[in-house]
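FW: tagging you since you asked about this chain on Friday. Here's the raw sequence from the shared folder, copied in full. Didn't touch anything.
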Amino acid sequence: MSAPSTPLHDNAVFSALTQSRASLERACALGDGFGLALWRNRMDDTAYARPGHHTMSVYLEGGFSTYRRDAPDRKGAPDRLCLLPADHESRWHVGGTQRFMHLYFQPEHLAWHCVRVLDMEPRALQLQDRLFAEDDALVALTRQMVALDWEAPDMRMAANAMAHEAVTRMLLSHGTRQPSVDWRGGLSAAARRRVTEWVHAHPAANPTLGDLAALADLSEYHFARMFRISFGMPPHVWIMRARLSRACGLLGDRRLSLQQVADQAGFASASHFNNRFRAAYGVTPGQARASGMGALPSISASQGS
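HL: got it, structure written out here
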């Protein structure tokens, strides 16, 4: 059955399922480029070919007759997890009825969490291809997300926070270190730390590319190229992520006005803060504060400064 139009129509795995026999129960764009979709399927065949984004799939019901064509002896089951990395290719046969949730996220999300959580370059870690794995923590997070009303702004923001937690857990439990022997370019570990520490220590600053390049003792042109290699995104995108991440934490302190939050997080004005926050999360800072969901962890890599 064809799925209704949703903000996820450009997502490759989502689009592949809309062209199959799968039935979409509901779907939602969570902000930060995250997408959630709840599906049912039966007696179907489908395939994914290098979708360009990562997918976490958790079986909620059924799946006992579902298998991947290259591993026909392994079958699905409730509370089993599949991870499909961005460069993943697979063909699937779906037997009896199954119900499952997909969490879609971009490589930039992995990059942000690699640097912030693990102090590693994104290219140093690869998300593993997992087939019907057991992971109680990720399954529990998935079922919590399924139980939420994704149409309600506060619940959507709660799901966003859970999605970020899920990505961190995936990195810690299902990430594989990459050999570094063939690496070219990128900032040194010391330079990378100097830049990140300076940005987080000066949230209200508006550094130029030259200011940041000086921290790494590089020319502006060379720094911009090396930064992107080491961080997985341009400098201005990283700075905007850091500003919104700080703002989310400050929103929890009701002693601060929204103007004070904007100032302390480094936004040029309250309107600039409002516009960037809404673009990232789909709600205004005031709505976020009113919902009680102030502690959100990150923002979309598509947001500039």
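FW: The chain has two domains: 12-177, 189-291.
HL: agreed, and Residues 189-291 form a domain with the Arc Repressor Mutant, subunit A fold (CATH 1.10.10.60).
FW: great, closing this out.
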